[in-house]
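User: Earlier you gave me the apo prediction for this protein. Now I'd like the version with zinc ion bound, so I can compare the two side by side. Same sequence as before, with the ligand SMILES added.
Assistant: Got it. Here's the input I'm using:
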Amino acid sequence: MNKKKNQKINIKRIKRIRRIKKSIITMVLLGVVLGLMAYIPINIKKKALIARDVVASEKFKDDINVLGTFNRLREDNKSIYASDEVSIKINSEIEEILEELKNGVTDKVKELVDNLNSLLVDVSAGNHSELEQLFNKLNEDKMTGFTQEEVKKVNTLMDEYNLLIKEQKYSEAKVDLEDINTYVKEVKKIVETRITKEEYDKKSTEDEKSRKATYINGILLVNKKNGLPDSFGDAEDPKAREAFEEMKKAAGKDGLYINAFSTYRSFWTQNRLYWNYVASFGQEPTDTFSARAGFSEHQTGLGFDVGGADRSLWANQEFQYTAEAEWLKNNCYKYGFILRYPEGKEWKTGFVYESWHFRYLGEEHSKNFNNNNLTLEEYLGV
Ligand SMILES: [Zn+2]
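And here is the structure of the complex with zinc ion:
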């Protein structure tokens, strides 16, 4: 009996356990379903948010690139040079971009930055080719007579230039190139002075009897490189005198008195004059204002030293400030004369500025010298 009772109780318990198991499974399944129902929409939403972030960050990257390009272009603009017209165009494009940027990095900004970019690329390319042309021209220039030190300085400047070109710093490269140009020009003048001095020393110590006068295109040339034999010339040139008298008359009409106080000088007069100066001033200073015998234009009879009413200013540096000197400078060419030793051309003529020394050339040639500081050497291409 007891055994039967126990069996009954066991069956009941098993049934209960089965019920409990069933309800647990049902609850778990229900939980899973509910979980999935909640998870799926959240996940979809999250994915959508991520996708939106990706788009936004791509746009952000794009905008940063545009701004970066714009800043780089503004920097590049400092490294180039352009005509006023182009500079104005570049600056107004930059202003326009800055204005448009107030609305953010719009499509218009992108378009404007692209335009600016192509404009600057064009200008840079133009700078590059122009500078290279100038540089090549300068490089072809022969630096004959330059000292080692002078050549070294040119090379240093050229190295600097090459570095700047490499870095695309065109405006700085241009300045450097201009420096080289100026320096080479200056040294050339020094070289010319040096060569002239050497030739002068050589030629003036040669036998004056065997020297021959130099004519270029029919024009007699006397300077430190071209002397005259001692026998050359005996008086002032009559044509030159006639022209001077006409010039004197014209000056008179303008209320100015002019006088030719020294014209023809013989080889021996010049010799005495020169050595007297040397005794007073020394040879080197004398060589800047007085010619050695056989190298004076006065021996040709074509050189006229002209002064005004004030005798104290004859052959005086102060003469250049007088009304007579001004008149002569502006009008001499009309009468066949040229100012033979112009200001700033000492390196070419070998003599200091002489506002009083005029050379008769004839109107046919003198008209080409209309107050332009041209020297006879330059006119004759020597
Ligand atoms: Zn003179």
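For your comparison, keep in mind: The chain has three domains: 36-140, 141-202, 215-380.
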